[in-house]
Amino acid sequence: MKKATITMLVIMMMAILTGCIDQANGLILYGEEAKLNQVADKYKDDIKSQTIYNVKKVSTQGKEVLVLSESTARNLIRMELWNEVKNETQLSVLKGMPTIGNESGLLFAKPEDKHIEMNGLNVSYQGNCVIGESRRYTDAYVVVKDSSFETIKGTLKQMTVLHTKKSMDKELVTIKDYTDAFQLVKLTAIN
């Protein structure tokens, strides 16, 4: 048992030293703008850039849906933060999204949630996609035209994308007190 533990530690140290384990260089925070700004202020020396997006949280059919404007979704695609779930262990970066019609939206959810409906909005299922590497803070995402975003009835929240100088994994214990949800991410492209 002791030998196996030492072997595991040696392998992990080698992987870290050779760069085999990607470290997160970003953080996505969800919640109230004032509290999210407190996080940014507290860790300002560790942050390269900060982008704040308005999102809406909507409850429908027993599911929580995060509604994003088209420009927000396209910015997340440019930052390579929007991913298609291929299977339980594999993601693929989403390269684009279909055109959104008036009075309609694009639904991204698990296959079992592809029939989610929203009042007054014709949504079309576009696949199982997530922001970052997992579905946090929501059961599904709906993307609407920028002009339609303000008309969506829901709770206005903010999503802040922080590009950090280092991995913030050690600070998560403190950060969680300021957010509704958060996730570490690997940023490869910054808007």
Question: What does the model show?
Answer:
With 191 residues, the protein is of the alpha+beta class. The protein contains five helices and eleven strands. The chain has an eight-stranded mixed β-sheet. Strand 2 and strand 3 form a beta hairpin. InterPro entries: Lipoprotein_22_bac. Keywords: Signal. Pfam families: Lipoprotein_22.
Kindly provide the radius of gyration, computed on alpha-carbon positions and rounded to a whole number of angstroms. Answer: 18 Å
The rounded distance between the terminal residues' Cα atoms is 48 Å
Widest sheet, order of strands = 7-6-9-3-2-10-1-11
Tally of helical segments: 5
Question: Quick one: biggest sheet?
Answer: 8 strands, mixed
How helix-rich are the residues, as a percent range?
Answer: 10-25%
Shape assignment = globular
- What's the average pLDDT? 87
Strand content: 35-45%
- Poorly predicted runs are 7-21
Number of strands: 11
> Which structural category fits the helices and strands?
alpha+beta
- H/E order of the elements? HEHEEHEEEEEEHEHE
Signal peptide: 1-24
Keywords: Signal
Pfam families: Lipoprotein_22
Give short descriptive properties of this protein:
3-stranded antiparallel β-sheet; 191 residues; 8-stranded mixed β-sheet; 23% helix; Lipoprotein_22_bac
Summarize the structure.
Keywords: Signal. The chain is of the alpha+beta class. Helices cover 23% and strands 38% of the residues.
